[in-house]
Write a structure and sequence with these properties.
Layout: H1 9-15, H2 19-31, H3 34-43, H4 55-69, H5 76-81, H6 90-99, E1 119-121, H7 144-147, E2 155-157, H8 179-187, H9 189-195, H10 216-225, H11 236-247, H12 257-260
Antiparallel strand pairs: 1-2
Helix pairs in contact: 1-2, 6-11, 8-9
The chain binds heme C.
Residues 103-105, 107-109, 120, 122, 124, 156, 158-159, 161, 164, 167, 170-172, 179, 182-183, 186, 228-230, 242 line the site of heme C.
């Protein structure tokens, strides 16, 4: 989100993993815009002068905005759970039963927000810039980059499925264009990974621009031997029911865009629609 290395000083600090430097640049920029200081002082009484402003105030303010603005807790599924039995249609009810039963989705997508917060290897086609160079090329090693444990290779956190129909493309690298593809991948990662058209996603090597590096045989073999998905067989009708259930996880009462997007911001930068 800081941008690509070389495009600005924050991205450069982030690329060197120098978080403190990146944070300091952000704080300095923000505190030198008067409009922001008065807003921070309003919500954080401890921020009396510019020098009191820290990255924690900015991070908490952003977290609060996300928490209030993008919380999805009033879906047909919630209403159904609260006793409004007509909130789910026939198909969504069938899908819910599959989700929490035969399809084994709730093995990982569990709890109120359909996530156990844990990490799994789903053998998702590893395209995109990733985070660091892996052994086989440039694939993203996922959780391993944090824990340094090889057993965490290619693992990513189970995401919430709240509002999931609104947040495509799907997968941590946005590789799936439809929910059907996501489900097909969960049901048969071998087929999905082997049939994936990697040629349409070329990598550029930093050191050798124009040259693409990716040892797919290595990736496929290593991903598929250790993936965590249970074996499940579903017919097309059942897949449609599951998708109908995913629709039922959409919040019916989102905050209006006018509330979420200000007309202007203190920096004077343009605010896009
Ligand atoms: C072994 C644990 C596990 C099981 C079982 C599982 N999932 Fe997932 N699911 C995940 C993880 C982990 C991801 C994120 C993968 C990634 O992006 O690398 C994910 C991603 C998804 C996504 C994409 C979300 C997004 O925002 O991109 C959907 C939709 C989804 N799962 C639905 C299902 C359904 C439906 C089932 C049952 C058929 C299911 N999952 C079973 C772990 C699981």
């Amino acid at each position: 989100m800081a941008g690509q290395k070389g495009s600005n000083e924050i991205a450069d600090a982030a690329a060197k993993d120098d978080k403190v430097k990146a944070w300091n640049i952000v704080v300095n920029r923000v505190k030198n815009i008067d409009g922001y200081m008065s807003l921070f002082q309003e919500v954080y009484p401890s921020v009396k002068s510019k020098n009191d402003l820290g990255i924690q105030h900015i991070a908490n303010a952003l977290a609060h905005y996300e928490d209030k603005g993008y919380r999805a807790v009033d879906s047909p599924y919630d209403r159904y759970k609260e006793g409004e039995l007509t909130a789910l249609n026939f198909e969504a009810k069938k899908g819910m039963k599959l989700f929490y039963g035969k399809a084994k989705c709730s093995q990982c997508h569990t709890g109120k927000f359909q996530t156990d917060g844990k990490f799994y290897n789903l053998a998702i086609p590893p395209v995109g810039p990733g985070k660091e160079k892996g052994l086989g090329g440039k694939e993203d090693f996922g959780r391993e980059l944090v824990t340094k444990k090889i057993s965490d290779r290619y693992k990513f956190r189970t995401p919430t499925l709240r509002n999931v129909v609104l947040t495509g493309p799907w997968g941590h690298n946005g590789i799936f264009q439809t929910l059907e593809e996501v489900i097909d991948h969960h049901l048969n990662p071998e087929e999905s990974l082997f049939n994936f058209n990697f040629n349409s996603f070329l990598y550029l090597d930093d050191e050798d621009p124009g040259h693409t590096v990716f040892d797919m045989t290595f990736v496929k073999e290593n991903m598929l031997t250790s993936h965590d998905l249970p074996r499940v067989d579903l017919n097309n009708q059942e897949k449609e029911y599951l998708i109908e259930f995913l629709y039922a996880l959409t919040d019916l009462n989102p905050l209006p865009r006018e509330v979420l997007i200000p007309e202007s911001v203190p920096s004077g930068l343009p605010v896009k629609d």
